[in-house]
Amino acid sequence: MVTDSYNFFKHFPESKLTPDSVGTVYNDINTYFRHCLNPLSKEEIIDATCKTFLSSVKLLKRAMYSLDEVMSVKKLVEQLRECKEELDHHRVTVIELQQTVINSQKEQLNSVKTSAEKVKAYSTVLAQNCAAVSSSPVVKKYSQEPTQTQSSKRDKNLVIFGLPETTERLTKNNVDGLFAELNEKPKVNEMKRIGEKNEKGPRPLLVSFERRATLMALLRKSRQLKNSENFSAVYLSPDLTPIQIRERKALIQTLKKLRTEDPGGKYYIRNNIIQVE
C-alpha cells in the first residue's frame, strides 16, 4: 500500500502543481491516507509521511518560483513605464529644439529681407546719382564714345599719382626706380604730365607702353608700394576716360555713404559695381 501511495505521488503531473492547487492536493493526500492508514504499520506510516512532506516542500518551491516570476513581470512593467516617461520627456525636448530652430530661421530671413531692402534703396540712390552725373554739361561734353584707336591706346597707358614733379630727366629716373621697386623693367614709349601745373601737388604722370600685358603686370604689383620706403605715397591706375573717372567718383561716394549708414555691412567695389556680403 505504501508503494502504491508513493507511486501515486511520484507520477502526479508536476505541471499541475501551481500555487492555487497546493491546498487542493494537500486535502487529496489527507483523504487518501485516511483510507490507507489502518492496514499500515508505524514505520510505514512514518515513511509515507516523510515522503508526503518532501512532496509538499517541492510544491512550495514551485509556488515560490511562480511568485518570483510574477514579481519579475511587475518589475519589467515598472521599467517600461519609466522608459515611456523618459521618451515623452525627450519628445518634448525635441519639439522645443525644433521651435528654436524655426524661430532662428525666421530671424535670419527677416535680416536678409532687411538687407535686401537696404541694397534696393542704395541702388535707387546710385541710379539717381548716375543720372545726375550723366545729365551735367561737363559729362555731356566728354560723353562721346572714343574711337577704336583711342581705346587701344588707353588700354596700354598707366597713370602714376603722387610722383614728385621735377625735371624730365629726374622724372625718368624716378619712374625707372619705381618700376625697379616692382621688379619690372618695361619698355616705355612715352611719358607726359596730365593737366595744368598748380601748387596743390604734382600732376599725374601718363606712361605709355607697347604691350597691355606690361600695364597689367604693374597694376597687379602696385599694392607692394604701400610698404616701399621711397614710393609709399605713389598710386598706380589705368588710364580712364573722363566719364569713367566721374562714374568711379560717384561709386566711391555711394560706397562711403553705405559704410556710414551701415557700419556692420561689408561693402566693396568690384567690376564697377558695389557688392555687399
Main beta-sheet strand count, sense and barrel state: 4 strands, antiparallel
**Fraction in beta strands:** 5-15%
Unreliable stretches: 1-17, 142-148
**Radius of gyration over C-alpha positions, nearest whole angstrom:** 53 Å
Q: Helix and strand succession?
A: HHHHHEHEEHEHEE
> How many strands appear in the DSSP assignment?
6
Spatial strand sequence of the major β-sheet: 2-3-1-4
Mean pLDDT: 76
Number of helices: 8
**First-residue to last-residue Cα separation:** 106 Å
Broad structural category: alpha+beta
Q: Determine the fraction of residues in helical runs and give it as a percent range.
A: 55-70%
Write down the overall geometry.
rod-shaped
What does this structure look like?
The protein is 62% helix and 10% strand. A hairpin with a 2-residue loop joins β5 (267-270) and β6. The model is unreliable at 1-17 and 142-148 (pLDDT under 50). The strands form 2 sheets. Strands 2-3-1-4 form a 4-stranded antiparallel beta sheet, with helices on one face. Strands 5-6 form a two-stranded antiparallel sheet. The chain starts with a helix and ends with a strand. It contains 8 helices and 6 strands. It has 277 residues and is α+β, with helices and mostly antiparallel strands.
